[in-house]
Structure formats: structure tokens, C-alpha cells
């Protein structure tokens, strides 16, 4: 068996080849550097074949689960082990208390991780294409939603500086009618000649859904407001229109992503069971399924072997530090931050859509628990149920779970 350690970088990679059957802990078959290019990847495979011709007998340790190099390694049939950089750093320090560091030494340490501690790491699990596409689209959508929030915040700041009366006219600053209003009336001077009849026609043209508020909005828009410096008005108007263009374009892309995600999600067999959970909407459901992957089968184990792995990955499970009489339970920071956000959002919506989740939330609030702690503990419960539904294929039943809680004598579920 050939063990390969690769210290990854943007434009080059240091490689170390180690004989997995050798008893010499310091033995290294070869050290070399390759470029991040087709020629560099070809050089890597040529050097590997000098020592091992069977791809199944080649195990690679690398500090990232993504990228062109990782894809190339997987395509060649190697077993790829993504190693957390912190784990690699601590393993390197085991060999020398002085903590020397260079790229070649890091590659050597990565190769020896597979030799001494391989059972503690899992090889990279490549999901089917539709699941991987769903995961990538969900990640991109989250990022675009964050970008939209930033643009809205900048737009709010801009309007506060020269046009505060336009801020609270409509429920959302990024709504279609709000964007249309700012384009039609980009500065306070445009409102001085705005008649009630013309304003009502504007709302009707843009299909405003609350016509009963038209009079209140008109009075608010045309009410006297402090006047800004003319220079601020001119610059603010240009900045506001530029932000609106960015917002409009981003909104269109977000809708396109949502449609594509919904289409892929509906085509996957696990979507029905996940959609049955309380609080799982069009955003959370696909993100959960993208994390879980296909349901495990007898001949193909799933991405997770227990709910504990999912709890640790999401950061919902705490970390315990104990030595002698000292014991401390701490918040887990090393996790998938996007999955943590997904579970936080799910727990928050579940308190409004699930009877048992709402009862648990109210019970904890009455006992003075912190809001974020409640949601994190609720997420632990939801993960346990989610994993069972995903692994067994049985549909979620709200009443069945409530009856189960009562049979176990759970205090906060007794009145349900």
C-alpha cells in the first residue's frame, strides 16, 4: 500500500510518498513538488505508478476536500482522506516539540497520519451528481442571500443620509413596489408635486397588495422631512440607483437558484420525508438533504453512521474538557458553519410550527435558559429524529413523537 501526503497550495503542491508496509517511521520513498496544472497532475500519477500500479492501494491525505487536485485524485480511483489543517498541525508537533514547519515536512506528516491514525479519519465520500449539485447550489444561494442583506443595509444607510421618508413606506426595502418607488421618485424633490391620484395610480400599476394602506403611505411620503445638503442628495441619489441595480440583478439570480433547487429537490427520493418535518420550508429542506445525501442501503452505507456525527458536524453537540476534578462543557466552534445556520433556522421555525418543539421552548424559557442555548438543544433533538427518518425511510409523525415523549414521562410534553 502506498501512502501519499500532499501539502496543498494555490499554485503548487508538495508531495511525499511513503510505503505503508514499512516499519521504518522515518522512511520516505520520494519527495517532490508539482504545479497546479495538467502537467503537474500527470507527473504525480507517473511517480505514484513507479511504486504502486493499483489505484485502490493508493491512499492520499490532503488538507482540503475540494478543488481541481482532489477531483483529479478521485477520478484516478485513489482513496482520498481530507485532513483538517488543525489535526495535521498537531500531528506534526508530535514529532518535534520545537514545532518546525515547511511544506515538505507537512506532506510527510500527512502521509504518516494515514499510517498511524487512519482509523480515526474517513475517506472522502463522493455523493451522486444530483446531491452534489444540490449542495453547491444551496451554498451559493446562502451566499447570495447574505450579499442581498449587505446591499439592503447599504441602501438603508444611503437613504438615511438624504431620503429618510422613503425608508418605511413599504414592508420590505427590497420588495418590487419599493424598488419601483425609489426608481420613480429617487429624491425628495420628486415628492413635492406628487398628487394623491398619481400615487394611487402608481400603486395600482405595480399591483400593490395592501390598497387599504395607500392613504397612510401617501401621507407618510409627502410629510415634511429635514432637508439634506444638495451635495449629499446628488451623490446619494447616484449611489442609491447603483445599489438598486445590484439588488435587482441579485434578486433575479436568487429566484433562478430557488427554482432550480426546488426542481432538483423534488426529484430526489428522500425529499418527501424531509418535507414532512415541521418548520422545513423550501430553503431548509434542500439544505438538509444536501448534507445527508442518499439514504443508506444494505450494500451502500450512508454519509453518516449515526446521528452523533451529524451533531458534531453541525456544531450542535458541545465539547467536554475534563482533567482530574476539572470539567468544562464548551461550545463547539470547529464545525460546518453553514449547516449550523441551517439547523439554527430550522429550530427557530420549528418552535412556531411544531407543538412539541413549542412546548419545549416555552418550558426552557420559563426556567431561564438562554435563547441560543434552547435552539441548540432543540436542534439536537431534531437531528436525532431526522437521522432516524433518513436512515430507516419511515415518515415523520408528529403525534407519534408526542405520544412517545409522554410515554417516557417528559415533563414539558405532559400537557400536549
Kindly describe this structure.
The chain is an alpha/beta fold and 416 residues long. The chain folds into three domains: 2-120, ATPase, nucleotide binding domain (Nucleotidyltransferase, domain 5), CATH 3.30.420; 132-264, Helix Hairpins; 307-320 and 335-413, no CATH class. Helices cover 55% and strands 10% of the residues. It contains 16 helices and seven strands. The strands form two sheets. The protein has a five-stranded mixed beta sheet. Strands 6-7 form a two-stranded antiparallel ribbon. Strand 1 (2-8) and strand 2 (12-19) form a beta hairpin. Helix 13 packs across helix 14 (355-366). The longest helix has 38 residues, at 230-267.
Low-confidence stretches: none
Secondary-structure-based class equals: alpha/beta
- Global geometry: globular
CATH class of the largest domain: Mainly Alpha
Q: What Rg, in angstroms, do the CA atoms define?
A: 28 Å
Amino acid at each position: 500500500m502506498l501512502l501519499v501526503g500532499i501539502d496543498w497550495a494555490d499554485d503548487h503542491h508538495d508531495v511525499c510518498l511513503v510505503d505503508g508496509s514499512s516499519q521504518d517511521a522515518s522512511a520516505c520513498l520520494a519527495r517532490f513538488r508539482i504545479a497546479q496544472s495538467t502537467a503537474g497532475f500527470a507527473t504525480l500519477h507517473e511517480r505514484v505508478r513507479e511504486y504502486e500500479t493499483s489505484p485502490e492501494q493508493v491512499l492520499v491525505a490532503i488538507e482540503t476536500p475540494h478543488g481541481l487536485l482532489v477531483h483529479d485524485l478521485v477520478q484516478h480511483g485513489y482513496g482520498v482522506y481530507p485532513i483538517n489543517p488543525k489535526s495535521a498541525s498537531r500531528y506534526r508537533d508530535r514529532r518535534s516539540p520545537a514545532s518546525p514547519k515547511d511544506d515538505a515536512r507537512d506532506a510527510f506528516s500527512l502521509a504518516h497520519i494515514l499510517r498511524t491514525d487512519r482509523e480515526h479519519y474517513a475517506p472522502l465520500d463522493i455523493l451522486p451528481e444530483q446531491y452534489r449539485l444540490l449542495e453547491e447550489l444551496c451554498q451559493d444561494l446562502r451566499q447570495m442571500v447574505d450579499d442581498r442583506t449587505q446591499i439592503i443595509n447599504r441602501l438603508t444607510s444611503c437613504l438615511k443620509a438624504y431620503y429618510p421618508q422613503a425608508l418605511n413606506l413599504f414592508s420590505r426595502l427590497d420588495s418590487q413596489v419599493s424598488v419601483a418607488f425609489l426608481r420613480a421618485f429617487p429624491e425628495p424633490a420628486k415628492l413635492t408635486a406628487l398628487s394623491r391620484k398619481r400615487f394611487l395610480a402608481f400603486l395600482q400599476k405595480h399591483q400593490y397588495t395592501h390598497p387599504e394602506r395607500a392613504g397612510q403611505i401617501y401621507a407618510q411620503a409627502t410629510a415634511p422631512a429635514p432637508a439634506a445638503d444638495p451635495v449629499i442628495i446628488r451623490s446619494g441619489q447616484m449611489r442609491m440607483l447603483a445599489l438598486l441595480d445590484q439588488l435587482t440583478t441579485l434578486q433575479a439570480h436568487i429566484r433562478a437558484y430557488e427554482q432550480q433547487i426546488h426542481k432538483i429537490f423534488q426529484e430526489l427520493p428522500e425529499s418527501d420525508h424531509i418535507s414532512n418535518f415541521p418548520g422545513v420550508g423550501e430553503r431548509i429542506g434542500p439544505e438538509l438533504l444536501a448534507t445527508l445525501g442518499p439514504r443508506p442501503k444494505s450494500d451502500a452505507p450512508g454519509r453518516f453512521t449515526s446521528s452523533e456525527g451529524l451533531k458534531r458536524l453541525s456544531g450542535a453537540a458541545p465539547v467536554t474538557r475534563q482533567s482530574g476534578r476539572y470539567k468544562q462543557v464548551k461550545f463547539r466552534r470547529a464545525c460546518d458553519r453553514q449547516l449550523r445556520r441551517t439547523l439554527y433556522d430550522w429550530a427557530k421555525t420549528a418552535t412556531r410550527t411544531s407543538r412539541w418543539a413549542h412546548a419545549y421552548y416555552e418550558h426552557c424559557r420559563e426556567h431561564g435558559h438562554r435563547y441560543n442555548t434552547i435552539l441548540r438543544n432543540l436542534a439536537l433533538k431534531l437531528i436525532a429524529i431526522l437521522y432516524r427518518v433518513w436512515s430507516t425511510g419511515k415518515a415523520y409523525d408528529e403525534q407519534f413523537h408526542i405520544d412517545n415523549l409522554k410515554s417516557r414521562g417528559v415533563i414539558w410534553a405532559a400537557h400536549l
